[in-house]
Design brief:
This protein is α/β, with parallel strands linked by helices. It has helices at about 10-20, 25-45, 85-90, 135-145, 165-175, 200-205; strands at about 1-5, 50-55, 60-65, 70-75, 95-100, 110-115, 125-130, 130, 155-160, 180-185, 185-190, 195. It has one domain: Rossmann fold, CATH 3.40.50. Strands 1, 4, 5, 6, 7, 8, 9 and 10 form an eight-stranded mixed sheet that branches. Strands 2-3 form a two-stranded antiparallel ribbon. A two-stranded antiparallel ribbon has the order 11-12. It starts with a strand and ends in a 7-residue tail after the last helix. This is Uracil phosphoribosyltransferase.
Length: about 210
């Protein structure tokens, strides 16, 4: 697991987005700043190989490039918050979607829909799932990728908040998957929500409910 450096700047951003009284627009803008940091860190976890290019002055630059194509897969709906940033960072990148909803009574994930980019089995995948609470939804999404031929070692889970329980479960059931997160929370409450937490990330980001804690 890779935790973003806990700088004063990152803590200040978290202070804004965790505030129950922040406006929806501020929540979106400040969340996107954290998301950009997460995506950059996630891409840096992928393997690179040497590449050479000719500069405008006719000289050779000895650089690097990804060893495989890269695509993104978002876990709907919260994961869609990361799509725009990733598409700005890598123009033309393929984006897949997986719709998983947690049963409010059993707390178990249910798969409803998935559509993945062509050639995903030969690609590195940024799996965009902002909330890692129990780990159930992330593992259900990972199962979809596995069935599509994506090996765990080609997956980087890009995550906004993670619980110790969720990290422990993924480490046990998917040890080859790399994880990048901006915060490891104190734990889960009796409703399986992370604390101190951020509330329902998807609802707050897309403005579908009143801002709550």
């Amino acid at each position: 697991m890779s935790l973003l450096p806990q700088t004063n700047q990152l803590r200040a951003l978290h202070t804004v987005v965790r505030n129950r009284g922040v406006s929806g627009r501020e929540f979106e803008v400040f969340s996107r700043r954290i998301i950009r940091l997460l995506l950059e860190a996630g891409l840096d976890l992928l393997p690179f190989e040497e590449r050479e290019v000719t500069t405008p002055v006719g000289e050779t630059y000895h650089g690097l490039g990804f060893t495989r194509p890269v695509c993104g897969v978002s876990v709907v709906r919260a994961g869609e918050s990361m799509e725009a940033e990733l598409r700005e960072m890598i123009p033309g990148i393929g984006i897949g979607k997986i719709l998983i909803q947690r049963d409010r009574r059993t707390k178990q994930p249910e798969l409803f829909y998935h559509h993945l980019p062509a050639g995903i089995a030969a690609s590195h995948v940024l799996l965009m799932e902002p909330m890692l609470a129990t780990g159930g939804s992330a593992l259900a999404a990972l199962d979809v990728l596995r069935k599509a031929g994506v090996p765990d070692e080609n997956v980087v889970l890009v995550n906004f908040l993670a619980s110790p329980q969720g990290l422990e479960r993924l480490g046990r059931e998917a040890p080859a998957v790399r994880i990048v997160t901006s915060s490891v929370e104190d734990g889960l409450n009796e409703h399986a929500f992370m604390v101190p937490g951020i509330g329902d990330f998807g609802d707050r980001y897309f403005g579908t409910v009143a801002t709550t804690s």
